[in-house]
Each structure stands twice: as C-alpha cells, then as structure tokens.
Write a structure and sequence with these properties.
The chain is mainly alpha-helical. Mean pLDDT is 92; it is low at 1-11 and 24-36.
Length: 707
C-alpha cells in the first residue's frame, strides 16, 4: 500500500510542543488553523471520519495519503485499516502496530484485531498478540484470553472460572467471547449448569433475549422453542403449562415468571404462589420472589415500600439473591414508613457481597442502620491509682458505625459528604495541593496522547479525543503486576491543568477527579462564565451554586454538548422545552438555532429550573429530578396523599431510574461544594436535601402543565 511508504512515525517531542502551543490559542482560532495543518488538513480529517462512519473503504483509501504529517495522522490510518480489517493481512496489522507504537490507535487496533482473531478461533495468533495488549478493558477480549489459558491447561481453575463468570454476567448483550468461554468451561465442569441458568435469568430480567438465548443454548438447546414462546407472552406461556418436573423445565418456568414480573408484579406473584411455587426449588422460588420484590420496590410513589418488603419476606435465604435485589430490599426498607425499617436495612446490606458493601451508598446506610439499632452507650467505672473514674462504654455496633463513617467521610461525593455531617462536620473547600512544578507542567505539555486528544476535541472529534485522553491518563501503561495502570497523582493533576488551561472542562474535571490523596477544587469545580451564570441566577431567584452544580453534571461546561435524545448546550435543553420556556419567561424572538448560544442557553435553562423549583415547593432534589427525567415522574415519585414524608436522601436513593438517581445525588453534592467555593463558608448537604412527601392538596398547584 502507498501509505506504508509515505507515513511518518508517531509524534516527535518537537511536534508535540508545536501542537501544544497552537492549542493555547482561543477556541475560535483553533478551528481554523493549528500546528501547520491548516483548515484544509483539518477538513480532510473530518471528511475521513465521515467516510469511516459510512464504511466507505474506497474513499478512505483515496484520502489516506493526503493525511501524511497531520497531527491526527494516526486516526486517519486507524480508520482506513479498521474499515477493512476483516480482509487485511496479518502483516498489514503488524506494520500498523509498528508504525504507531505506544499510541491509543495502536492499542485500539490491537483490541479490534484480538476480537477478530477470537472470532476466527485463531488461538495461536491471539496468544502471541495478547501480551502486548495494554488497555485490557474489553471484557470480550479478556474472555477470549481466559479461554486460551484454559485450552493450554484444561485442569480445574477456580480463579479462571470466577473471572469468566464475572465478565459473562456483567455483559449486558450477547457476545461471542464470554459465551464461548462459558460454553467451554461448562463442558469442562469449571462452570456449573446453575451458573448458566443464572446468566439466563439476569439477561431475561434485563430484557436481553439474545443474551438469554445464548445461555440457554449452552445448557438446554432442546428448550429454545420454549424460550421463544415465553418471550412472546409470558402470561400465555404460563397459562398453557402445568408441570415442571425436570430441571430445564423448572428453569424455563422461572424465566417466564421473571419476564412477567418486569411488567406485572401482582400477576407474577399470583402465578408463583398459586401454581408454580410447589414445583420449583427453594433457590428458584427465592430468586423469583427477589425479582418480584425488586420490581415492586422500584414503583416509588405507587407501591409502598412495605408492600415490596412483603414480597422479599417470602425469600427464606437472602444468599440466593443478587446484590441488585438486595439493594432494592434495602431501599424498600428505608422508605417502608415514617421511619426506616432499620433491622431490615441492615440485614439486606449484610447479605450483599463484600464488593457491594464497600460502595459508599451501602457503607453509609449500614452505618446509619447500626447507629439506629445500637443499644445505648453505658457508663462504666474504672479504678486507677488516682481513684475511681467514670467512663462511657461505647456499644460495639456504634463503634462499627463510627469507623465506617470516618473511613468514607470527605467532600468527594454525596454519601461521603453525608458521612461528614453525621460526624458533626461541615463541607468546606479542602486545602490546595502543592503547586505543579515547571517540570510536571512540561511533561503534560509534551505528552503526545494528550496533545492529539486535545487537538481532536478542538476540531470537533470529541468522542475520539475523549477516548484517547482517557487512554493516555488511565490505561496507557501497566504496573509491576502487569495490570493496566495510568498516571500517578501528580501526573493527573498536571494533565488536568493542561485541559483546564485550554478550557477543555470535561477532561479537566474528570482527570482531576481521579486523584485520591490530593484534591484540587479549582480543577474539579471550575466556575467558567461566572459573571453570566451568577447574574442570571440571581435575576430569577436561584442559588448560583445550584445552577453550577447542575451545569457541571449536565454538560461539564461544554457549550456544544449534545445528548442522544437531542438536548443541547451548557444546560442541555430539548428544543421543545426551549420553545415553551422561552414563551413562559417572555424571551421574544427565540429560535431553536439559538440554543447553543451561551447566554441564551443559560437564560432558558435557569428559567426552566426556576419553574421546576417553584412547581416542587423549592425542593432542590425534586427539581433536579424534574430537570433530568421531566416533571411528571417526580410528581408520581413524591407519593400520593397519605404516603410517608421521607428524608430526601432516602427519597433520592429510591428514585427508580439509575441515571436520575445518580444525577440527583451528584447535582446536590456539586451544589454543596460550589456553595463552599462561592461563599467561602462551611456548607450543609443535609440542609439542601430537606424532606420529600406528597403535595399539600390544600394549596394551589404551581406550573402544573410544566413540560
């Protein structure tokens, strides 16, 4: 191929320095020229990217020689070869890997090539290339590698089996690598038939029929027609069946009950109790009751937490439940009445895996449950040479709770902040790390991956730039144990500053957040556009910290950010919502093409946020939920008249949508940290959370028709 002769090696230090200087130019200038490439060169790269997305191999091959010497040359070469990888020779792949050593594109193509070798069952070539793979973050590639390891030594290996099981269970969609590894290990009795049925259950509940079919095909191919039938209509399937005598039939009935429970909790419970419970094993019954309990627990605002607990009470062995089921049991117990059912919260958390219990969510709620159920501290008398001294004997549960809180308390996140407050402390701005040295800054400035990533982001290839940035900071090298590793703490701070200085705010924030021992709030919580945000927030009666907390979560201050559903700009506004909000706040002459204008986006976003806040009586958590999921859902989630009034931390943890649950917690945590920054005063997350309960029906409903 012609490009093999004309392409230059990967970035030199001089090229990095030149490109780094160009990236210091204002963003408006960066789109037209940089590092001697010019707009024509940038347009060529953008055209190649479009051709790659279309799968236009001919166009890519035609344009490739013209990309010689461009800063993003490795991307151009990657797109061209990736587009025809299935027909490329092994030598062409090796030539590419040798031409761009140490780059993201080299390891990205290696990842793609390893997947192809696995699909081809070319285990010799796979085994030869896999040790060079640095990212090691692709579960399917890892499953192929574990399969190769097993083929070399077919003896029973618990470590290998555990890793295959973990990767396979975590894969939401069907894939060849983990399915092939599981199939082989089942045949060799490293994995059990029960492992395979567990995968089928998880896939069925997640509405992943192909993944469920892949598992059933391994263990009971004769049941594939039954699986197709139950996926069509679980209630019709269950009505037409009467006996489940053999293991495969019991498991298929279990899958049908799981499928039914995802849409009809009461119907699945009736079917299980009245017809199938006596025919299923205890473990199968426990799993189905766990799914039914979980589904009931997710019906925040319509199904009381106590009802969900009644379903969970049918489980006679919590060890048969998954961590996800146990999490929803704990959530249901938290909202089961005016006061949480603390013993049940504690029991659910204690039944979780060790890994799940370490999550800040469950560390915090376990500590709260221990404090609530601990016996009172007792006075004790001790004799000393100086006389009799009275002391306090702390109950073991209380001591355990305090140890959990102290271990997690920090300003890093929602539950970490709540832990601080449980210990009687407030949220303040931490001390800044030692200033970066000139050498540390220079090392980041000359880093080829960071420069290429920043350049790609600058010209509009944000997804590509983000992937290369993350690779350069997180995955580009291995530690002494051969595991993937990234930059050290000081390197991360320098890389984050490299992004901050170029106003690439998302990489600035995300990179700085990876440090564990040093916390730089200037990087983690930047305040771009301060005059515009503060002025507009105060005009409409919003706390600027709340607006900053929301923008940080919505867009990471990327002005041209665009979500999959079509939301745009700093505050991620949908076109229809923008039009209606503009009308309500009297913004004359608004047109949808103005959404990405900074000031217009802030005006409309803060206007909508204020309308949502008024609609929910000033509740910051509910307004944040409305901003993310629409106001209709939190109107339901707050409960009907007679529903208990909940601590907003409990309410937020029970939000059914994982994205919205995470969003509300992060917006409120962000807000508290921004308030500490903007005011210079200690802050309280608990004070911002407040309580959440049904609307007072005696008061007029504000903004009832808010879109």
């Amino acid at each position: 191929m012609l490009y093999k002769k004309v392409f230059s090696p990967a970035f030199s230090a001089a090229a990095c320095a030149a490109l780094s200087l160009s990236l210091l130019a204002p963003a408006s200038a960066q789109n037209t020229s940089s590092a001697g490439n010019g707009s024509a060169g940038d347009n060529l790269i953008l055209d190649m990217h479009k051709a790659f997305r279309r799968g236009d191999k001919g166009r890519l091959a035609q344009m490739l020689p013209q990309a010689k010497g461009h800063a993003l040359e490795p991307w151009a070469a990657y797109w061209e070869l990736k587009a025809r990888l299935g027909e490329a020779s092994a030598q062409e792949v090796q030539d590419f890997l040798a031409r761009y050593p140490g780059t993201y594109q080299e390891d990205r193509l290696r990842n793609d090539w390893l997947l192809l070798l696995g699909q081809r069952r070319d285990w010799a070539a796979f085994a030869a290339e896999y040790p060079n793979y640095r990212m090691n973050d692709d579960r399917e590639v890892r499953c192929y590698a574990l399969l190769v390891e097993h083929l070399k030594n077919p003896a029973l290996d618990a470590r290998l089996s555990d890793e295959v099981r973990r990767n396979w269970f975590a894969q939401r969609d069907a894939d060849d690598g983990c399915t092939a590894a599981a199939d082989r290990l089942v045949g060799a009795q490293n994995l059990t038939p029960q492992d395979v049925w567990h995968k089928a259950r998880l896939a069925t509940e997640a509405n992943r029929p192909r993944a469920a079919a892949g598992a059933v095909q391994i263990i009971a191919p004769e049941a594939m027609d039954l699986l197709t039938e139950l996926n069509g209509s679980p209630i019709r399937f269950l009505a037409g069946k009467h006996l489940a005598l053999r293991k495969a039939r019991k498991e298929i009935i279990t899958l049908a009950l799981i499928k039914m429970a995802t849409t009809d909790v009461e119907g699945a419970a009736f079917q299980l109790e009245s017809k199938w419970a006596i025919q299923l094993s205890a473990e199968e019954r426990n799993w189905v009751w766990g799914v039914i309990g979980k589904q009931a627990a997710t019906r925040l605002g319509t199904v009381p937490g106590s009802d969900a607990l009644q379903y969970f009470a049918r489980v006679n062995n919590d060890s048969d439940l998954t961590d996800d089921m146990l999490a929803w049991k704990a959530r249901a117990a938290l909202r089961a009445g005016t006061q949480p059912q603390w013993p049940q919260v504690l029991a659910a958390i204690n039944a979780m895996s060790e890994e799940a219990r370490k999550d800040p969510t469950w560390s915090y709620w376990k500590a709260r449950a221990l404090l609530a159920t601990a016996p009172p501290d007792r006075p004790a008398v001790a004799s000393t040479p100086q006389g009799v001294t009275q002391t306090i004997s702390i109950a073991p549960q209380r001591a355990e709770a305090l140890a959990l809180l102290q271990a997690m308390a920090s300003v890093r996140g929602f539950y970490e902040q709540l832990a601080l407050e449980e210990l009687g402390q407030k949220i303040t701005v931490p001390a800044q790390p030692a200033p970066l040295t000139a050498q540390e800054k220079e090392s980041a400035r000359l880093n080829p991956g960071l420069n290429r990533a920043a350049y790609a982001i600058t010209i509009g290839l944000r997804p590509e730039g983000v992937r290369e940035w993350n690779y350069s900071t997180n995955l580009h090298k291995r530690n002494g144990a051969g595991e993937r590793a990234g930059m050290g703490e000081r390197e991360l701070l320098a890389a984050a500053q490299f992004a901050c200085d170029r106003q690439i705010w998302d990489r600035c924030i995300n990179t700085s957040e990876r440090t564990r021992t040093e916390t730089d709030f200037d990087q983690r919580f930047p305040v771009p556009f301060r005059e515009a945000v503060v002025k507009r927030s105060r005009e409409v009666g919003l706390d600027p910290a709340y607006v900053y907390g929301l923008i940080r979560q919505e867009s990471r201050f990327i002005m041209d950010a665009r979500s999959g559903p079509g939301a745009s700009g700093l505050m991620q506004i949908m076109p229809a919502t923008a039009r209606e909000t503009a009308r309500r706040i009297g913004l004359a002459g608004f047109t949808p093409d103005q959404i990405n204008d900074r000031d217009t986006n802030i005006t409309i976003g803060t206007g909508y946020l204020k309308l949502a806040l008024d609609a929910f009586e000033g509740s910051l958590p509910m307004a944040a939920a409305a901003y993310n999921a629409g106001p209709g859902r939190p109107r339901v989630w707050r409960g009907q008249p007679g529903s208990p009034v909940l601590d907003a931390a409990i309410w937020a943890e029970n939000v059914p949508f994982g994205e919205t649950r995470d969003y509300v917690k992060k917006v409120l945590s962000n807000t508290t940290n921004y308030a500490a920054i903007l005011t210079g005063q200690p802050q309280s997350l608990k004070a911002r959370l407040g309580m959440v309960g049904p609307r007072d029906a005696s008061l007029p409903e504000v903004n009832k028709d808010l879109p």
